[in-house]
Specification:
Elements (H helix, E strand, L loop, with lengths): L4 E10 L2 E11 L4 E5 L6 H9 L6 E6 L2 E5 L2 E2 L7 E4 L11 H5 L8 H14 L15 H13 L5 E5 L7 H17 L4 E5 L2 H7 L2 E6 L2 E6 L1 H6 L4 H6 L4 E6 L5 E2 L4 E2 L12 E6 L4 E3 L6 E9 L3 E7 L5 E7 L9 E6 L5 E3 L2
Parallel strand pairs: 3-9, 3-10, 7-8, 8-9
Antiparallel strand pairs: 1-2, 1-4, 4-5, 5-6, 10-11, 12-15, 13-14, 15-21, 16-20, 17-18, 17-20, 18-19
Helix pairs in contact: 3-4, 5-6
């Protein structure tokens, strides 16, 4: 089965600077991928290469089995059957919604174009908005119009470049979930570029996390969170602390962290280990003898996110229901659950 989008060891250079190095990626039809990472990691350069705005210096990009880019040939962007949604939506302010959506359909006869626009307005849950103007719509509605316009010519893939960055963070995750449902219902293949992992988790089936132009880990959202390849991935994805602890013969860790299970983890007596502790690995346990001093707390509505201090001063996070209310400086009785803990090689 040919994949819908296939990148094979793609590199993108600007002069001598390698913005992207040896990135490979496969998306099946109807899958939603994501290029995630801090700014300057190469994700936008890669997206621009897929769209045809940047040449590749090595490797190849193929869409639906057709090779679009190699180091010595490249299909023009307008011939690529690629839809783009940009961060500022880029709607035409002087055109109403109907004409915005129909913009890329100039090749169709008028009646057919009208039909397609009507179909798309229903698709993005905006029937009845054909004659409205962009400035009359909310940010979320404008985003859906931009989506409809990009989907109108039935592209083979939809590229979304930081599509929610101008919206406030509350709305972002919600909209990412809505857009995901819409793309899934219509079996649209898409790639999202973002630096926001919550957005990535809410929308993507598969995430390629980039670091300095290279793939740090390409995986499902679940695995990125629970099975990070290295410390960069662990630090970038989600809250958590990486702490250093020594382990003795019996598997006991210092700092009162508890015991490691030999079946799940590989270690040797005397090893200095680097452990990733997520907020959900440490729970409030009223009867526990382990008590850690609270050095920080943040109210999150249904939860408190506490910062706790280990005996040697290292800090770890803990998530509790919000009725567990302990003042900074006081102690919180806790239980460490080390069954799922991630250990990094020194």
């Amino acid at each position: 089965m040919t994949s819908q989008l296939a990148l094979q060891q793609v590199s993108v250079h600007y002069g001598n600077f390698a913005a992207v190095r040896d990135v490979s990626l496969d998306l099946e039809r109807g899958q939603i991928g994501c290029l995630l990472g801090p700014s300057g990691c190469g994700k936008t350069s890669l997206l621009r290469a897929i769209a045809g705005f940047e040449p590749v210096s090595s490797g190849q990009i193929a869409l639906h089995g057709e090779v679009l880019s190699t180091s010595n040939s490249q299909v023009a962007p307008e011939l690529r059957r690629v839809g783009m949604v940009f961060q500022d939506f880029a709607l035409f302010p002087h055109l109403n919604i109907e004409r915005n959506i129909g913009f890329g359909l100039s090749g169709l006869p008028r009646e057919q174009r009208k039909q397609r626009v009507k179909q798309l307005l229903e698709l993005v849950d905006l029937p009845g908005y054909a004659k409205a103007w962009p400035h009359e719509l909310s940010g979320g509605q404008q985003q859906r119009v931009a989506l409809a316009r990009a989907l109108a010519p039935e592209p083979e893939i939809l590229l979304l470049d930081e599509p929610f960055s101008s919206l406030d963070s509350e709305l972002r995750e919600q909209l990412a979930g809505e857009v995901r449902d819409l793309l899934k219902r219509n079996n649209v293949t898409a790639i999202l570029v973002t630096h926001d992992q919550h957005e990535a988790f809410a929308m993507a089936d598969h995430i390629t996390l980039l670091q300095d132009g290279q793939v740090a880990q390409a995986d499902t959202p679940y695995n990125l969170y629970h099975r990070p390849n290295n410390e960069f991935v662990a630090e970038f994805i989600g809250q958590g602390s990486i702490v250093t602890a020594r382990v003795d013969q019996a598997g006991r860790l210092d700092n009162q962290l508890g015991e490691l299970d030999k079946d799940h983890h590989h270690w040797h007596a005397g090893d200095q280990l680097r452990l990733l502790l997520r907020p959900d690995d440490i729970t409030h346990a009223p009867n526990s003898k382990k008590r850690l001093r609270v050095t920080g707390k943040a109210f999150r509505g249904a939860h408190y996110l506490y910062q706790l201090e280990l005996a040697d001063g290292q800090r770890v996070p803990c998530l509790t229901p919000s009725h567990v209310d302990v003042a900074i400086g006081e102690e919180l009785p806790v239980h460490f659950d080390l069954r799922q803990i991630v250990i990094f090689d020194r």
